[in-house]
Amino acid sequence: MMKKLIAALLIAVMVLTATVAFAEQYEGEDITFTYDENAFEITTDEVDEGGHFVVLNAKEEAWGKTYIRFYVYMEEEDGQFSSVESLQELLPDIEITQGEWNGFNDVIMYNDGTEQLFLVPLTTGEQMTVGICVTEIEDEDVAMERDDQISAVLDTLKIVADAEG
């Protein structure tokens, strides 16, 4: 009986260790989040006005073009994508809607013909937008696995509020 208990504990420790080994935490000046390094690879890029964005690109070929882009900089008062109207001016030929997605309100959504894009506005002492781009997938199981991975990343997202905000 004791040997079985010890064996079960060892298996549990091995499974937990294996799970933790695949998780990677990105810790930047403005945000932190955890992602599965088997599912995503991370890049950072500079943008205008000294800001930058962090991008998680999907490694899984079956997911098509899938990425999560964290825009890490203070938005101007009217915001880069503060409204459907302002985005519609930039993309006049694309239908743009606004609603709830993944528990977030006021998400701006549009389809550019190949990918569905979601702009998720987040506010904590400063504003930030999370852009999510996904390819439409016919296989529902693959699409659900991908969406679960995206949700898992967003569930761990922590935004560092501006100390002066």
Which descriptors would you attach to this protein?
single chain; 165 residues; alpha+beta; Protein Transport Mog1p, Chain A; 7-stranded antiparallel beta sheet; 3-stranded antiparallel beta sheet; 3 helices
Q: What report would you give on this structure?
A:
The strands form two sheets. The chain has a seven-stranded antiparallel sheet, covered by helices on one side. Strands 1-2-10 form a three-stranded antiparallel sheet. By secondary structure, it is α+β, with helices and mostly antiparallel strands. The longest helix has 20 residues. The chain is built from three helices and ten strands. The protein starts with a helix and ends in a 6-residue tail after the last strand. It has a single domain, classed as 3-Layer(aba) Sandwich (Protein Transport Mog1p, Chain A), CATH 3.40.1000. About 4% of the residues have low confidence.
